[in-house]
Structures are given as C-alpha cells and as structure tokens.
Amino acid sequence: LSLLTITIHGIDPEQPVALKPALLKHLKDISNWVRAHPYRAFGLFGGITILGLTLAIPAILEIVGFGALGPVGGSIAAGWQSSLGLVAAGSPFAFLQGAAMGGAAMGVMTGIGVLVGAVTVAAALTLKEGTVGGLVSSCKGAVGGTVNKFKSFFGKWKTQ
User: Fold this and answer.
1) What is the per-residue pLDDT across 99-142, written as a single tens digit (0 to 9) for each?
2) Model's pTM, two decimal places?
3) In a 3-state reduction of DSSP, which class is residue 5?
4) Please, which residues have CB within 8 angstroms of residue 13's CB and are 6 or more apart in sequence?
5) Please, where are the H alpha helices in 6-159?
C-alpha cells in the first residue's frame, strides 16, 4: 500500500498529512473483523448499500429519463413508453413515472428501501452469527455466489 495523503483545508497543500500508519491499523482491524464475522459483515454492508441506493432513487429515475414533467425525450423511459403505446394505470411504468413526479409511489419505494435496509442491518448486528450464516448460506444463485466472493476476498486480503 503506497503512502496515502490528504490535504486538509487551511493547511499548506505542499505539506500533506500522512495517514499511512493509522489507516493501515484501521484496515487491519476491519479486515480481521470481517474475516471473523463474514455473514454479519455481508449483511451490514448489504444493508448500508440498500439504504444508500434508496436515497439515490430520485437521481436514478432522472438518469433513466423519468422526469418531474414526464418522460424525457430520447431517454430510456421515453423508449419504454413508446413501446407500450397506451400506458395502463398501475403498470410498472406508471409507478416509476409517478415516483419521479413526486407521487405516493416515491414514498412507497423509499419506505420499502429504508425498511429492508434497516432490517438487514439490524439482523446482521443482532442475530447470532450461526443464524445469519444459515440464512445467507441457504441463498442460492446470485446472492449465494456474491456471499462466497465476499468471504474469499477478505480471506485472501492480508494486511501486514
């Protein structure tokens, strides 16, 4: 790991503050904790990721082309709408467009995201390691593969 430096506002940028010893200690502590509690760490990081994505819903909808006044011309949302013809009320497209326009759908999406993220983090922190491991191990497909990659990454990541 090369020397990590940062510049703090108000300090001469020619004299950066070296963080190498403290950063390496914290990375080692985190790595050791993750290796000792892989399922709990996976649940914690997963829950935090879900919470972060929930906060990004408005930006994601805008990027895809769901605007506050309707689909943005030339966007993915506009292409989807043109393939549908008449958009039915209650359809996934209508739900997403309603969310982008600040309707109740945004509250539903945000509420579900916050609930799932909070429950995931709470379960990861409060359930016994064996219980969390059993729940995660029972996952098949993409989730199970992701957990195994997560475990192997921290198992191979050695800090000096």
Assistant:
1) 999 888 899 988 998 888 888 888 877 776 666 556 666 665 66
2) 0.56
3) strand
4) 7
5) 20-36, 38-55, 57-64, 76-84, 92-100, 104-126, 129-137, 141-156
Amino acid at 138: S
* Cβ 46 vs Cβ 139: under 8 Å: no
Q: Alpha-carbon torsion 117, 121, 127, 129, what sign?
A: positive
CB burial of residue 43 (10 Å; 0-12, 13-18, 19+): buried
Angle, CA of 91, 95 and 96, to the nearest 5°? 120
Amino acid at 54: T
In the chain, the amino acid numbered 120 is T
| CB-based burial, 128-160: b 16+ in 10 Å, e otherwise | eeeebbeebeeeeeeeeeebeebbeebeeeeee
Distance CA 125, CA 40 (A): 7
